[in-house]
């Protein structure tokens, strides 16, 4: 069996997930086990939120580690504590 994965956008993923959710809900209603299904979904949602929080925390830790000890700082624009000498005027031309 060969599986071919296509890159999907968020709308396609949403549609794919909703189609399975509808099928599952129809089966649950026929079996009269809606409460069990809702409890399962609540546990699943809580687990996903916890996983996302861990991923976010790890991403923040990695960003903080990368910034803590830079090898060299590249300044943009004028150097810090740079004062123009008397001979240097502003670049604006007065009319």
TrEMBL record:
Superkingdom in the source lineage: Eukaryota
Entry protein name: 1549_t:CDS:1
């Amino acid at each position: 069996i060969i599986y071919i994965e296509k890159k999907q956008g968020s709308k396609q993923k949403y549609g794919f997930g909703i189609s399975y959710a509808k099928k599952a809900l129809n089966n649950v209603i026929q079996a009269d086990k809606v409460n069990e299904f809702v409890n399962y979904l609540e546990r699943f949602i809580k687990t996903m939120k916890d996983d996302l929080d861990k991923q976010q925390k790890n991403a923040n830790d990695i960003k903080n580690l990368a910034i803590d000890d830079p090898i060299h700082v590249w300044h943009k624009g004028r150097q810090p504590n740079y004062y123009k000498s008397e001979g240097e005027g502003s670049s604006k031309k007065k009319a």
